Amino acid sequence: MVCFNRVITFRNNYDNDATTFSPTGRIFQVEYAAEATKQGSAAVGLVSKTHVVLVALKRNAEELGSYQKKVIMIDDHLGVALAGLAPDARVLSNYLRQQAMSSKMVFNRPLSVSRAVYSIADKAQENTQSAGGRPYGVGLLVAGVDVTGPHLYEFQPSGSVLEYVGAAIGARSQASRTFLERKFEDFPNATREQLIEYGLIALRDTLAQDKELNSKNTTVAVVSKNEKFTIYDDENVQQWLDKLDSLANSRSRGRQDDDDDDDEDDDDDEAAAEQAETTATATSGDAPTTTQDRAPDAMDLEE
Amino acid sequence: MMNVQQNATMASEYSNEVQTQPIEHRFNPYTDNGGTILGIAGEDFAVLAGDTRHTSGYNINSRYEPKVFSVGDNMLLSANGFAGDAQQLVKEFGRELKWYHFDHNRKLATSSAARLIQHLLYGKRFFPYYVHTILAGLDADGKGSIYSFDPVGSYEREQCRAGGAAASLIMPFLDNQVNFKNQMDPESNGTKKKELRYLSLEEVLQLVRDAFTSATERHIEVGDGLEILIVTKDGVTTKYYPLKRD
Amino acid sequence: MNHNPFHWGRPSDSTYGPYNQQIAHASNVNPMARQQQQSDFPTMHTQRPMMTGTSVLAIKYQDGIVIAADNMGSYGSLMKLDNVERLLKVGQDTIVGISGDLSDLQAIQRILNDLEIDESYDAGDDEDALAAGLKANHVHEYLTRIMYNRRSKMDPLWNACIVAGFDDEGKSFLKYVDLLGVAFASPTLATGFGAHLAIPLLRQRVDSEADVKKLTKADAIQLIKDCMKVLFYRDARSLDKYSMAVLSESDQKVEFHKDVKVEDMKWAFAKGIKGYGMPQL
């Protein structure tokens, strides 16, 4: 440090666009986009043999502000929950709405859930292979029912989609994923009400220390073969909140639950952590420009 | 004899075959699929009725092909004339309505729906939807309302309107029975016009049934069945009555 | 060898005269008109059918649908082909019967084939998903969109089609669509000459959905066979060899009969033949 009178600014040469691989085979812009989804508040999805449930935690930018919409209806049989950049989600959901409507217009049948997710997956993938654009900074949980039954898919900015029996995205979603992993065997035969309860417990685990679920910050959405995609907000979610033993997560309650993931950071954040390490080494301790321009604050997202 | 004929101009059909202009054998994109529709507004209801016969020329294509639709938001819509266009118009309206719901998250007012239909029709001003369109619903005060449209979107709100094949048979009957045209107050000894009043649902249904049974008698493209859709604040109900099938 | 045709050379102008550029701009437009001015004539679309197929017949019975169409391809009044298959199978259990222009029939065949391939991408190896996916009502809606859009471009597919199959609920589905995009459903359907000759005979037995419940499979097949016979008697552009598909709701299956022959014809003096050759009730 003493020896250098010039601050060596580390620069990652491989994150200028989404079309360049790093020598280690990674596409940084896509990873940063995935990072943006982790900044958004959590959304959880679960499937039984009959129902798909989405629950999500809404944030408000400030006390006096309104709460961010987390679940968007696509069609009578289809909807999405989002985590990350809400404007990007709007673009994607509008596209999905068009697809759903054209399926009705052209074939007189509802858009199948797999067709729906793959249609946006293709859009997202284009952004990872063509210059000039950026990947979508939003993750989606796509819930719907079609002729083959109820489905839940997770969509990522990379364009990858996977089907799940239970999935969680967004800030501290690892905590709810831990819960889902413990309970998922019960999901197929769970009733509608049980499924919602499981969802809310999973969502509860993503809460920050001093936060609680309440009717203002909780969204529930349900769809089944005989039930159109319905979003429940505000006073309509109270019925399920009343059934929970607690509205805060186990950490806040001070219970030492060894199964719970107490790590505030996401575990699958290894890539970023590794990245940060590289930075530290390269800059030899001086306070440099960081490689990762992490979003300054989650509040800036989902506006 | 032979020589005379050879020298004379041959009057044969073949002589016309040499042409300098291309024959334009144009495809006609329109047809008339017959049928008739009728809408009447009441004080707190509106009905829109149509026969269920579907025709091409002298052929009866189907004895039951509904053409009055409950399109959502407590509205009834029917387009009568060329069935291809009619179906497209109703579908297009359904799509616009759905987007309206996505965008605004509220019901579409009947008056707004009427304006929307005007734009759908006028948008194809130079290749028109060959249909007579009637929209039925309730207005902001809960009163029954009927809007009728010409093929290119000219529209007005009315108390009643008949459209399609037998419109000219039914409309004068409606003028007399709904708007009391040429009716005098019996008390006034022919000096005062009969005062307008709202008809009850029972009266309207009877009028509609009479109108269609009469139209069936006189018009070959009308018959088989009568489907009446009734809209009130509580929603839409459907009634079906058979008509003569000859 | 040089594979560029422009480098192959052409017969010398001195021997064969200069190349006639009109060959490269050949069209089916009246040659007189072409000479006048090539560009001001509108683009040619199908303005009348050339090779044609005649009627398609279909009737609903208590457990499904019977649909039939003969195997003839006519070129005007010339019987050009006697082996045309006009009943197309789409997806697992949908039959589309097509009359009218045969080149447009093939265009429809390709479109529906593409649709089927597209569908199989989604379903993959999942037989159930494939069966659940593309039902007759979807095929019909799609076909209606295509027919209407083509007529709106003033470039119609010159056909009348009958779609027979099962809907999402597994119920019998029978609906018509033609070159104008006009679509309708009825328990008895026929295109072309059949609309004049067969429909009255079919409606004698089935005039409403209620009558459908009374008609057995055997009777429905016999009825269609009799109608095909009457059509062969009276429609000059028809053949005594036809294809017939029998759909049954209870097992969601399609039996496809090829090369069915018109049977028990009577070619005696007309004096003894009553009712256009239809067996009398």
Instruction: Report on the biggest sheet of chain A.
Output: 5 strands, antiparallel
CATH superfamily placement of chain A: Aminohydrolase, N-terminal nucleophile (Ntn) domain
What is the rounded distance between the termini of chain C? 74 Å
Any idea what the radius of gyration of chain A is? 20 Å
Q: What order do the strands of the largest sheet of chain A run in, or round the barrel if closed?
A: 8-1-2-9-10
Q: Name the poorly predicted regions of chain C.
A: none
* Relative strand content of chain A: 15-25%
Largest interface, counted by CB within 8 Å of the partner chain's CB: B-C, 27 and 30 residues
Helical proportion of chain A, percent range: 25-40%
E-strand count of chain A: 10
Query: What number is the mean pLDDT of chain A?
Result: 84
Q: Ends of chain A: how far apart?
A: 42 Å
Order of helices and strands of chain C: HHHEEEEEEEHHHEEEEHHHEE
Radius of gyration of chain C: 23 Å
The number of helical runs of chain C is 9
Question: What's the level 1 CATH class of chain A?
Answer: Alpha Beta
Topology:
The complex is a heterotrimer of chains A (303), B (246) and C (281).
Chain A: H1 28-39, E1 43-47, E2 51-57, E3 71-75, E4 78-84, H2 86-107, H3 113-127, E5 138-146, E6 149-155, E7 161-163, E8 166-169, H4 173-183, H5 192-204, E9 218-224, E10 227-232, H6 238-241, H7 270-283
Antiparallel strand pairs in A: 1-2, 1-8, 2-9, 3-4, 4-5, 5-6, 6-7, 9-10
Helix pairs in contact in A: 2-3, 4-5
Chain B: H1 2-7, E1 36-41, E2 46-51, E3 54-56, E4 59-62, E5 68-72, E6 75-81, H2 83-104, H3 110-122, E7 131-138, E8 144-149, E9 155-158, E10 160-164, H4 167-177, H5 201-218, E11 225-232, E12 235-242
Chain C: H1 13-16, H2 21-24, H3 31-36, E1 51-53, E2 56-61, E3 64-70, E4 73-75, E5 78-81, E6 87-90, E7 94-101, H4 102-123, H5 127-133, H6 136-152, E8 159-166, E9 172-178, E10 183-185, E11 188-190, H7 193-205, H8 209-212, H9 217-234, E12 241-248, E13 253-261
Antiparallel strand pairs in C: 1-4, 1-7, 2-3, 2-11, 3-12, 4-5, 6-7, 7-8, 8-9, 9-10, 12-13
Helix pairs in contact in C: 4-5, 7-9
